[in-house]
Design brief:
Blueprint lengths: L8 E2 L2 E6 L2 E5 L1 H10 L29 H14 L7 H7 L8 H16 L4 E5 L6 E7 L12 E7 L2 E8 L1
Antiparallel strand pairs: 1-2, 2-3, 3-4, 5-6, 6-7
Length: 169
């Protein structure tokens, strides 16, 4: 067995250590996806998804390349490990993996436009002397006009460090 020192990079996740704690990010992975999709020089977006996006499967709409869409959304799902800010948007676009249309692909690209500006963001786990567990949740109670299902989300902090999050239909 060999000691390789402190962990710096693992499965696409950078681990940066400082006096204040540990910072996890996927900057290189994000930039690789931007390069693969040809969006390195794209104009950044302020939000990962439009408010009141209204995405749904519509009869007669133009279909997107299913393989290309599934690869992009799969990479976005993995990227959401260190990016809770895109979890809701990725959950929305992942609902259309079986029959992606042009609007769905554009919504997935908008997440990439958002990530262009925010590629260096990640999660910081700070050293903290206070001990406490805090949780927050919200739901929209059957607001989806297609299937009347709710979207709910939660996140949990331990010692003011974000440790769990989820957005689920």
């Amino acid at each position: 067995m060999k000691d390789l020192g402190n962990l710096k990079y693992f499965l696409g996740i950078e681990v940066l250590r400082s006096e204040g704690g540990i910072f996890l990010r996927q900057k290189k992975y994000t930039l690789d996806i931007l390069a693969e999709t040809g969006l390195i020089d794209c104009k950044p977006a302020d939000t990962p998804i439009l408010v009141n996006h209204g995405l749904q499967i519509s009869d007669g709409d133009e279909l997107a390349d299913q393989g290309k869409y599934q690869r992009l959304v799969g990479k976005l799902i993995y990227l959401s490990l260190t990016r809770p800010d895109i979890a809701y948007a990725v959950g929305i676009v992942s609902q259309f993996m079986h029959r992606p249309q042009k609007d769905h692909y554009e919504a997935a690209l908008r997440i990439m436009w958002y990530l262009k500006e925010m590629a260096v963001h990640g999660i910081m786990f700070r050293k903290n002397e206070q001990l406490g567990i805090y949780g927050f949740t919200d739901a929209d109670w059957a607001s989806n006009p297609v299937d009347r299902k709710s979207t709910a989300g939660y996140f949990t902090f331990v010692e003011y460090n974000l440790v769990t999050w989820r957005s689920k239909k």
